[in-house]
Amino acid sequence: MLTVSEISKLQNLKTPFYLYDMELLARTVSEAMRQAALYGLEVHYAVKANADERIARYIAGMGAGADCVSGNEILFALKCGFPAEKIAFAGVGKTDEEIGIAIDNGIFSINCESLQEMEIVNGIAGRMGKKANVSARINPDIDAHTHKYITTGLEENKFGIPQHEFDDLISLAARCRNIDFNGLHFHVGSQILDVEEVFSLECRRVNEIVSYFESKGLAINNINLGGGLGIDYDNPDAHPVPDFGTWMKTVAEGMKSLPGRKIHLEPGRAMVAQCGSLCTKVLYVKHGLKKDFLITDAGMTDLVRPALYGAYHRIENLTAEGKGRKEAVYDVVGPVCESSDVWGEGRKLPESFRGDLLAIRSAGAYGQVMASRYNLRDLAPAVYLDRLPEQSEQK
Ligand code: LLP
C-alpha cells in the first residue's frame, strides 16, 4: 500500500512509468533464497522476466545465479555481478556468436535444445581451444495446465530434446571431446498455479528420465527444473510474496537425491512480478451509449500481456484512494491503434477523471522487458519507490 505522500509525489511525475517497490523485491528475494537454502536448492533468476539493472544487481547481490536466453543477457548478467559459474543459458535458437560468448566466459551451463546444437557447441568450443559446460534440455512431455502460449514442456512444443532421441544423446555426449556434460535441464511452463500437482508430476517424470540416462552410464550431476511458479494477479496485496516454500518443498521432496547432485530452479515471474506496477494517467473519460471508457496514456506497447495473452492485471485508481468517491464501471483502454489495446473490460473503479493516476498491478515481470516502440511511442522509464524524486526534480 502506498502512503498519501508517495501518491502525491507520483502524481506529479511524467507518465507512464514503471514503479518498483524495492522493499517488496527485497522481501521476495530473501524469502526465495531462504527457502532455497532450507531445501538445498540452487536459484538462477530468469533475467528475461525483468532486466532492470538495479533489480538484477540486487538479486545477484543476494547470491542467486542467472538464467539467460541470449548472449546479451549473459553479458548483462555478468555486468550486474552474477558469477559466470552460476549462469545457465537456454534457448532453442542460439547463434554461433552467442554460443561463443557463453564458452568464452566459462558459464555454468549451455542448455542444448537439440542434438545438432550440441554438435555445433562442441565444434565452436574446439575451434576456441576451450571446453564448454553443457546440459541437455529435455522435453518431458507433461502438461503444466497453463496458457498455451506459456506452456513449454509438451511434445508438440519446440523446446528440448524428445524421448526418441535419448539414446543418440547419450552416444553424442560421449563422443563430443570439447564439452563437459554436466546434467539435464527442464522447464514445463510459466504462471503455474497447481504447484504441488504439476511440480510433483514433473519430478516423477524427471526421476524416470534421469534413471534412464544413468542406467546407460551417463552421470547426471545437475538437474535444472526451470521456473514457472505462478503469482496472484487477482489480488496482489493478499499474496505480495509468492509461495516459494510449497514449490521448493515439492521439488526437494519429489527429486531423488544423490550425494554431489545439485537441483536448480529458475524463477523469473515469482521474483519480480509483484514489486512492479505500470503507472498511467487517465487522458480521457468517454461516455459511450452502452459503456464508459477510461483512456490511459499507457498502452500495449508498455505492457503487452493483456493484448498478447488476454492476461488479467488488477487496476487501481491511486488518486481516488481515501477520497470516498462512488463506484463506476469502465472499460479501461490504451491509446494504441489496435483493438486489443485493452487493460480490462467492465472494471469496477472509483469514479475516475482526467489526470487520475492509475496503477496496473503485478507488472514487474514480462512488463518493461517486453515493451516496444510501436507507433513510435516512448519507452516507459523505471521509478523506484525508495528513490522518488523530490518536487524540484519533477518534470
Ligand atoms: N527458465 C526457462 C528455460 C524459461 O523459458 C522461463 C520462462 C523461465 C525459466 C522463467 O519462468 P517463470 O518463473 O517466469 O515462469 N512472457 C510470458 C512468460 C514467458 C515465460 C518464458 N520462459 C508472460 O508474460 O506470461
Describe this protein's structure:
It contains eleven helices and 16 strands. It is of the alpha/beta class and 395 residues long. The protein has two domains: 4-16 and 274-393, Lyase, Ornithine Decarboxylase, Chain A, domain 1 (Beta Barrel), CATH 2.40.37.10; 22-267, TIM Barrel (Alpha-Beta Barrel). Strands 1, 10, 11, 12, 13, 14, 15 and 16 form an eight-stranded mixed sheet that branches. Strands 2-3-4-5-6-7-8-9 form an eight-stranded parallel β-barrel, surrounded by four helices. Helix 3 links the parallel strand 2 and strand 3. Helix 8 runs parallel beside helix 9 (244-254). Bound molecules: ligand LLP. Residues 46, 49, 67, 90, 150, 187, 190-191, 226-229, 266-270, 305, 366 line the site of ligand LLP. Ligand LLP is lined by residues 46, 49, 67, 90, 150, 187, 190-191, 226-229, 266-270, 305, 366.
Question: How are the SSEs ordered, and which strands pair?
Answer:
Elements lengths: L3 H8 L5 E4 L1 H18 L1 E6 L6 H9 L3 E4 L2 H9 L7 E3 L6 H9 L4 E4 L2 H14 L3 E6 L28 H10 L3 E7 L9 H21 L6 E3 L19 H11 L7 E4 L3 H4 L3 E12 L4 E5 L8 H5 L5 E3 L9 E7 L8 E9 L6 E4 L21 E3 L11
Parallel strand pairs: 1-16, 2-3, 2-9, 3-4, 4-5, 5-6, 6-7, 7-8, 8-9, 11-13
Antiparallel strand pairs: 1-10, 10-11, 10-15, 12-15, 13-14
Helix pairs in contact: 2-9, 4-5, 5-6, 8-9
The structure holds ligand LLP.
